[in-house]
Fold this sequence. Notes:
Elements: H1 2-12, E1 18-22, H2 30-45, E2 51-55, H3 58-62, H4 64-72, H5 76-82, E3 91-98, E4 103-112, E5 116-126, H6 130-138, E6 149-156, E7 162-165, E8 168-172, E9 178-181, E10 183-190, E11 196-203, E12 208-213, H7 222-254, H8 267-307
Parallel strand pairs: 1-2, 1-3, 6-12
Antiparallel strand pairs: 3-4, 4-5, 6-9, 7-8, 7-10, 10-11
Amino acid sequence: MLSLALMLIAQAAPTTPVVVAVALEGTAIASERTRVSALVAQVLRGIEGLDVLAIADIAGTVGEPSARAFAACADDPCKYAALGAMARGPLVLGALDALDGKRVRLDLRVVTATAGTTVRLSRDLALPLESGLIEAVGSLFPGRSVRPTGMLTVNVDVDNAAIEVDGTTVGVSPLGPFSASVGRRRVRALAPTGNSAETTVDVGLASASSVDLTLRDAHSAWPFLLTGVAGAMIGGGLTAGAIAAANASNWREACPEGKSCAAGFTAGRNAVDASTLSTEVAVANAFYIAAGAAVLGAVIVWFVEGAE
Length: 308
């Protein structure tokens, strides 16, 4: 079914050349050849003006007979012919050979129907080889710009925030994964309220990266307002306490123990001042209690809002 669909696509657009990238052969382990084959195809997709069809499983794509014919070929024109309708444009073949634990050898070649093998490339690349691979594969088609991509997801905690990558708006939140150029990218989100956040992320070749940006204020002004009220209440308590302490001090100085009180410090005044002192102490304590309640309220609001 897949083979039939690909043949129909190829026949429907005969004037559009499609670069066919076949899975790499070679002595490297199968999983590494599969991984690097996918990376090669991704770099090819990033080359200006190329449409790319990656064939990871020849038998599953063109059928068992063609796959056996392809495997039996001794030269590139034969391999080109074995792919039949799939080969409507350049064919990229190659091999990946293990050199040691730190390097591999990548051999690539471009084959066309009329000219046969037109480009040959052999590079020893250091693992993990992504950066060297981009330059190597890009050289297969000189004169074309190379802009390989990876997938990037930007998670924003508010809707309708504009999302920018390197200064270019790519959409609004919520936004699904999208293609971004390989390398370090600057990501910024701007909420309708004006709040903004930005960060940087390394986008890998043919890999998925993600970043989280927070635009919603985690806490309202209430915790800070209540904290300010608590500070004012403490100030009021200190003031009332200082006044009470000053009045008590006046009586201690005016009426030394065992001696007569100074003029004006009578029993009647003592009763009035004692009542006033009691009121001042009660006011100071009320301020402190209110301050404690405000602090407790600020703490509760802070944790409740932070948990939402």
